[in-house]
Amino acid sequence: MKLIFERSVPGRKTEYIPLPDVPCPEPEFERRGTKLRLPELSEVQVDRHYTELAGETRGVNGGFYPLGSCTMKYNPPMAEVCAALPGFADVHPLQTDESIQGCLEVMDMTERILAEITGMDAMTLQPAAGAHGEFTGLLLIKAFHRSRGDTLRRKILVPDSAHGTNPASAAMAGFEVVNIPSDSRGYVDLEELKKRLGPDTAGLMLTNPNTVGLFDPQISEITRAVHEAGGLNYYDGANLNAIMGIVRPGDMGFDVVHVNLHKTFATPHGGGGPGSGPVGCKAFLSDFLPGFRVRGEKELKRENAASRIGDVRSFGGNFTVVVKALAYLLSIGREGVPRTASNAVLNANYLMHRLRDVYPMAFDQTCMHEFVITLEKLREETGVSAMDIAKTLIDYGMHPPTMYCPLIVHEALMVEPTETESRETLDAAADAFRDALEQARLHPEEGHLRPLTTRIRRPDEVRAARKPVIRYDFGD
Hints:
The chain is an alpha/beta fold. The protein has a domain at about 80-330: Type I PLP-dependent aspartate aminotransferase-like (Major domain) (Aspartate Aminotransferase, domain 2, 3-Layer(aba) Sandwich), CATH 3.40.640.10. About 35% of the residues lie in helices and about 10% in strands. The chain contains 15 helices and twelve strands. The chain has helices spanning about 45-55, 75-85, 85-90, 100-120, 130-145, 165-170, 190-195, 220-230, 250, 320-355, 375-380, 385-395, 425-440, 445, 460-465, and strands spanning about 120-125, 155-160, 175-180, 200-205, 230-235, 255-260, 280, 290-295, 300-305, 370-375, 400-405, 410-415. Helix 10 packs across helix 13 (about 425-440). The chain starts with about 40 loop residues before the first helix and ends in a 10-residue tail after the last helix.
């Protein structure tokens, strides 16, 4: 489709704002040296352009979206309506506490519910995304050790099946990352973990269920070993969707946790945000949390915390994302939280069982919210890769699963159906997966050309990521 600048016609415009009837001061230092280059179109052209763009956008409301470890679940419009209420959408963070009592109640209630779900004692809503929450949690761990004069603890242990943001966040926080291998079952290699623990261990970052969709049965022994070595345990909440309301990270032995409101609690995910990554901690770490605390009973007030790490973002974070998460939580209720997790696990296992006779599973056992397929043998036999299968699935009207993650599984496809999909959708997805594999074996050369039904076949994704074209070239 054409860019909006390519649709532009000189002199064509739509004006609704009348010219001012009073003098407009224009200080010379604020005056542009050149004319602002904006596309010139009629209203109907603008409307059609953005409607066409919307039609090109792929979302959960457009079809099955089984991205593993991303929890691309359906986002209820009800939550969007709540976030758009004037009392939430039109407030300013510098208003007085008296004028935003409803907003403060939303924040206080959300923090209390999240603390209960995760088994933590205190929360902050300030972090703006999951990785930002990781970074914040690691700063808490760092500040805790320094407050005790324990400056030798410079190492963070990270399993090799972790999300890529884990080692990146640890490095940004100034830690040295120590890789912990997985064993043949897909769990943390406990003996290797114990070998790497020592007086220089600051903590462990862990996702449970892990990135291959398995709940580690050794979790209590893992967290206990880290504590005995003097380290703290950090829980990456990316996969909380599988266990919320059933098992709490705090009860597993974790000291710090972040949760993704834009994953687990059904607020929009993707497209660069906005997201929200609240961080919770045990009581002994609460003085290190950034942001303000909501205090009071009849009249709520913001109490600035004397955080030892300082703020990690302005004010209280992405507030309307919090509104959406609370609306979702209140709509499903206390009983709905564990039921949501149970259905997520049920859907993943149902789809896995529909595929396990034709697709090799990386770890062929009961999974949690997601499972990982390995197509290493298919590539050896036919030359068709995991990328080819993923691209083929686009032609069946679904978004591809996550490719080549985790790195410990060769030619990996990671699939997470979430709890919001029906059995009919899962059956249709299973049929598509099976047919895609059959076509790959019958016509392997065609697999390299897929998808065949899209406007663009296979863009250069590396070039698009490293050298994005983010401005229009006027040719002068």
